[in-house]
Amino acid sequence: MADVGELLMSVLSTIRVPKPGDRVHKDECALSFSSPESEGGLYVCMNSFLGLGSQYVDRHHARSGQRAYLHITRTRKAKKEDDGNSGSGHPPKKKPTRLAIGIEGGFDVEQEQYEEDVKVVILPDRQEVTSEDLATMPDVVRERVSLSMAGIMAADSVSHTLQVQQWDGEVRQESKHAADLKQLDNGVKIPPSGWRCEVCDLQENIWMNLTDGKVLCGRRYFDGSGGNNHALLHYQETGYPLAVKLGTITPDGADVYSYDEDDMVLDSKLPEHLAHFGIDMMTMEKTERTMTELEIAVNQRVGEWEVIQESGTTLRPLFGPGLTGMKNLGNSCYLNSVMQVLFTIPDFQSKYVSNIDKIIDEAPSDPTQDFKTQVAKLGYGLLSGDYSKPAPDPGEENGAAEPRGDQIGIAPQMFKALVGRGHPEFSTNRQQDAQEFLLHFINMVERNCRSGSNPSEAFRFLVEERIVCQQSQKAKYTQRVDYIVQLPVPMDQATNTEELQEAERRREEGDSSAPTVRAQIPFTACMAALSEPEILTDFWSSAVQGKTTATKTTRFASFPDHLVIQIKKFTFGLDWVPKKLDVSIDVPDTLDLSGLRATGQQPGEELLPEVAPPPLMTPDVEVKAPVLDDSTVSQLCEMGFPLEACRKAVYYTGNTGIDAAMNWIMSHMDDPDFSAPLVLPGCSSGPGTTPTESLSEEHLATIVSMGFSRDQATKALRATSNVLDRAVDWIFSHLDDLESMDVSEGGRSAAESEGGRDPPPGPRVRDGPGKYELFAFISHMGTSTMCGHYVAHIKKDQQWVIFNDQKVCASEKPPKDLGYLYFYRRVAE
């Protein structure tokens, strides 16, 4: 015991007690997915509070010199059988009555019960010190070590603080209008039943305005069901803010919505407000589902969910390398699906997984904040097979009706926190668009691969846009870089139009038995819509020095090794309400895009003169305000966008109309300067004239890493107010200008810079034949990107495999016609 006491005394100065703000990683290894439940448990450094699995703790000791670790092991308690349990070993689950998680009446969050063993371990010999050993040691040792142990165990782990343990979607605030709501004395009395919309006669989803008693239908939902927006339109005309959903009124309350506050609210004077229109709240019975019940139904809905998840068949669970499930951290299925697909691509495997030992050896002191380390950790976790094992399920060993396929899997908590940090959407636990996350992750890879191999090059390709002036027949060619092909869905090309029209007619007539008919769209029609020329009106032609009509044709200037196709299922209606197109597309297993390769300037074809259009400002010494179309600016403002963003949208689209301006807004909503005031080119105070020294070195390095010279990167950043994303877009649309740069912005010639070599003409892109085969697709279930669920299907050794969070199974009927993102790889010739 003296030896252990002496050891503790020798390391006592390195043992810290966690303070507020310290990040304590006691649930997950920083370099692997080991946890206290894993074989060997978890070692928490008692100085840095990093968690290390048994296979990495010796390496951490060798690098850091730290010797004292708190060893935590947990073993699952066996569940006690209950007489009232169902035959499967589980008590019957109660139907949720509340839109909440971890709260009475809400969705259950299963809490595992564990037995925990904690002791101090001194490296390198892994000598153990138990609580009993501490009791016999000197006071100074016992107190310091005990306080550190207690502090580590009592601290909230980082993973715990990143999760939403309890969420309540029903917490409603008192409406600011409730106390002083004005009600009109118009003699209106509402009957206790038989309500219809006063405009369209709809009998479902009926709301009564609490100011004037108007009975009107509710909002139209994303999928076209619901109401016809008449209650909302009435508010927009009158400004009367509160409405109650008829059919939800009981002595306990009702659904009350505030249009002004855009939320479900409480109305403490509801009995009084209802009595004004002859409604006795104490005698009313519920006949309609509340908004909470509707939302719960959406979260439990089948239909396309059943087809995409293949829940109608018994699926064979799969285990082994490359077949590892991922835990859903609360709406993280979009991330799970994308990362499962990415780590089937050789570029990502070789960059991160093949080099994992080197990456870990070079990791910084806090590897939880290092992008390369966390991506490598995730990739190795998915591909190694170490965590692809059946999840223990006490009580169901003999009673399971079918193999469920649940795995121990991995929980990508550190990875999600790191890639989402600072992002307004991906840092939350809300559902997100898988396509947007894929582009976000590719952008992070680009930023972190300035030297060495860059796996995102597997997706990078060049697009050539050819614009032909219809008056002069002269052409203009530009190129831009892209990573995803967005495939339009021409609904007018559906092959089952008659069935769709009949189903719509029955729905409008209120036939609740009308079947759900999905539009059948040929893939060839989608490709034709992508490749057909686009008509540009109000195109300013430098050949005729005026506005005219032009055609724009888009082609591939290069074909990537891996091609991602997004089906543009999510769109906006005429009223700018987002909706999802319910379509089935016969996406092929093989694809030949050779016919869409760009050909460049044709023999005998004349190019449009390189003359800029007349500026929107007066070219005086003092820059004048641009002439903007006020009506377009007003329309955009009415949609709720910031004024300065609307002004920039109209300015940068050259006053060409509401559609072009709206497209600009949708493309730039994530820009950091989206709402910043419009800064005009040539203005002395604008960022565009900032000297090179004040440009972001990080932005310059990012663009240079893509194959451009520093002078070209400088010019791009100056032209776009030092905004990286816009600079990248600008540089790829001005390749011809950059190639002919004789004098750089800094005053040196291109020959003087780069040691006399010409600057690279463009980005590093791979090219090859345009023939591809499908190897993966990601499907979305639900009515919008902000809700629902994502599932990935990936072809492994000629067998389709479904990755549904922690479930990994052999796919029986891969629903290739219902996908959202499709991944193809080049076929070698």
What share of residues is helical? Answer: 25-40%
Strand fraction equals 15-25%
Question: So what's the overall shape?
Answer: globular
Cα-based radius of gyration, to the nearest Å: 31 Å
Helix count, per DSSP?
Answer: 24
- Count of DSSP E strands? 28
Mean pLDDT figure: 80
Low-confidence blocks of residues: 81-92, 98-103, 162-170, 298-303, 394-403, 616-624, 682-693, 740-761
Main sheet attributes: strand count, strand direction, barrel closure: 8 strands, mixed
Written overview of the protein:
The chain is α+β, with helices and mostly antiparallel strands and 829 residues long. The protein contains 24 helices and 28 strands. Strands 15, 19, 23, 24, 25, 26, 27 and 28 form an 8-stranded mixed beta sheet that branches. A 5-stranded antiparallel beta sheet has the order 2-1-3-5-6. Strands 9-8-10-11-12 form a 5-stranded antiparallel beta sheet, with helices on one face. About 10% of the residues have low confidence. This is Ubiquitin carboxyl-terminal hydrolase. Belongs to the peptidase C19 family. It comes from Oreochromis aureus.
